[in-house]
Amino acid sequence: MKFNIIYLATLIVGIGIWQISRHYGEKSLQFYGFSENKEIEIKLDQSGTVMELYVVPGQKVTKGSKLIALAQEKLPQAMTQVQHEIDELELRDQLWRSETRAVIQRLKAEKEAEIGEVNVRIAELEAERARNHSLISELKSVKASPPRSDETPSLYGLKLQGLQEELALLSKPYDLRIRQLEQELAAPDHPLRAKIRKLKAEFANYQTREERLTITAPSDGVVGNIDCKASENVNAYATLMSFYEETPTQVKGYVIETLILEVEIGDVLTVMSTTQTGYTCEGTVTGLGSRIVEIPERLRKMPDLKTYGREVLIEIPASNRFLQKEKVVIIE
């Protein structure tokens, strides 16, 4: 049977199509995007009056530079009032501490005095007993009987025992009261000190509010629109100005519908400039759009043909050379 050349040609074409399909199937993912500076809306969570504007639109500033100073009419008065209350309470606390320490010293002195009196009485009793014993010993006609364990205690012994018991008991009330006062001095939850702490926390809050009324640049960047003017009263959370980071730190790309499953958060992709030949940097996927949107005309392969895809956000290092809104190619 003769071999049909048509079969051979079909086989060759099939192998060629398979090779081409395999080649394009293995080709890395590629889509377009543009670099952009993060725009920040400068707001304040409290109302106030604009006292001074330190910058103008388009001005480059460094991190920490003053942008706007605001003021609140009642804030200084409130701070003065709270500070006055703190000073008054701290003075009362100092006086109370001094008085309490004086009471402790007085109690200690009284305790030592009473102990001294009892000790003097004990010493006098022992001296009297010694004298009597000496006198009895000198009487040759009186013979001392040897003491027995069951002998009834002498009058001196009973008195001495009573004084020793008195000595042991008189310290307890003094020690108890002294310990109580010392604990009050050291206690952090004393009502007076608790009130002082509360007022100091209130004052610190006022200080924080006052400091935040002077708004500074969150990073190196460029001032955008200024939406307020000097002497103007502004509401809380109103936009005061827009602020841009100096260099793009984010790339927004659009991957076509058929390839949306090829990109995941955390993927590291290569971002290549379309205007600066050979310049690339790596970026990390930080966000994916939650819906399919129309790809901007500028990022379509064929501008006149509407295509749809998913938005991809890629974080890039701040030290890059991309321009604001520069078109880039994103490669897996």
Helix content: 40-55%
Structural class: alpha+beta
Strand order of the largest sheet: 1-10-13-12-11-14
Number of helices: 4
Main pleated-sheet profile: 6 strands, antiparallel, barrel
What is the 3D form? Answer: elongated
User: On the 0-100 scale, what is the average pLDDT?
Assistant: 85
Q: How many beta-strand runs?
A: 14
Task: Report the end-to-end length measured between terminal Cα atoms.
Answer: 52 Å
Unreliable residue runs: 20-27, 148-152
Task: Give a verbal description of the structure.
It is a single chain. By secondary structure, the protein is α+β, with helices and mostly antiparallel strands. It has three domains: about 100 residues, Elongation Factor Tu (Ef-tu), domain 3, CATH 2.40.30.170; about 60 residues, Beta Barrel (OB fold (Dihydrolipoamide Acetyltransferase, E2P)), CATH 2.40.50.100; about 120 residues. The protein has a six-stranded antiparallel β-barrel. A hairpin with a 6-residue loop joins β11 and β12. α2 packs antiparallel against α3 and α2 runs antiparallel to α4. The longest helix has about 60 residues. The protein starts with a helix and ends with a strand. About 5% of the residues have low confidence.
Topology:
Layout (H helix, E strand, L loop, with lengths): L4 H22 L3 E7 L2 E4 L5 E6 L6 E2 L4 E6 L3 H64 L16 H32 L4 H22 L1 E3 L4 E6 L6 E2 L6 E5 L4 E7 L11 E6 L6 E15 L13 E8 L11 E5 L1
Antiparallel strand pairs: 1-10, 1-14, 2-9, 3-5, 3-8, 4-7, 5-6, 7-9, 10-13, 11-12, 11-14, 12-13
Helix pairs in contact: 2-3, 2-4
